[in-house]
Amino acid sequence: MSQRTIVITGASDGIGAAAARTLASRGEHVVLVGRSPEKTAALGAELGAPFHVADYADLAQVRRLARELTDAYPRIDVLANNAGGIMAGRTMTVDGFEKTFQVNHLAGFLLTHLLLPTLVESRATVVQTSSRAASAFSRFDIDDLQNSRSYSPQRAYGNGKLENVLFTRELHRRYAQHGLSTAAFHPGVVGTNFGSESTLLMRAVYHTPLVKRLFTRTPDQGAAPLLWLLDSTPGKDWQSGEYYERYAVARTAPAAYDDELARRLWDESERLVGAAV
């Protein structure tokens, strides 16, 4: 297999960094995208890999990132939309969107949308890091994407992870015929810096050493399903447009299979990001 250009967002820590290390060790051309300038630069130096910095809570930075990637990489074989997080209280970004919605869905949607000409030309694979939280916590309302009613960190996060699956399915519907392959997956409960901005319970699960050791997976374990999707062949080893757990198609929230809902989410996301698309 020839060297691929693989863009990984959320790559400065956790499963993104773990996947980047493995892929770089195999000789792949890994492109790192992270929020932290220090962490992202450090990993770039460690791997000898190019890196870009963007905070998904600011869509101007996502637009700049898309321009940088388009200019620097005429071919992108894989886009791993791995950036995301769970927040504490309901806060709004500089763009006027609820932060959980923007960081987990809208920013990744915008980046993918702006990269579509390159991705289609490359016949790329686009992978979304979703979560079982989509079925456990989501109470999705297409008319309340800003999570303004009955907000809780878990519900907002579950909605964001459901949006990842809806986006995956709609991306497949619109672009599979053009050679694009896409999937969403659950990495497991991974012991990373995830949850540090959220509730006391989430911080206890992810940052108490004993609890973390007993109930979470390592970043390498969490990265394994992502690597499987990237190393195997869509249409043969996995089916484009599906959601995966433990290397197999899995069921998630019923709303994920509503084709009209997926279309409406895409159209509304386009409207929200506006002329930037």
Automatic annotation (TrEMBL):
Segment forming the signal sequence: none
Organism this protein belongs to: Motilibacter peucedani
UniProt entry keywords in alphabetical sequence: Oxidoreductase
GO terms for MF: oxidoreductase activity
InterPro entries xrefs: NAD(P)-bd_dom_sf (IPR036291), SDR_fam (IPR002347)
Name of the protein in its database record: Short-subunit dehydrogenase
Record Pfam families: adh_short (PF00106)
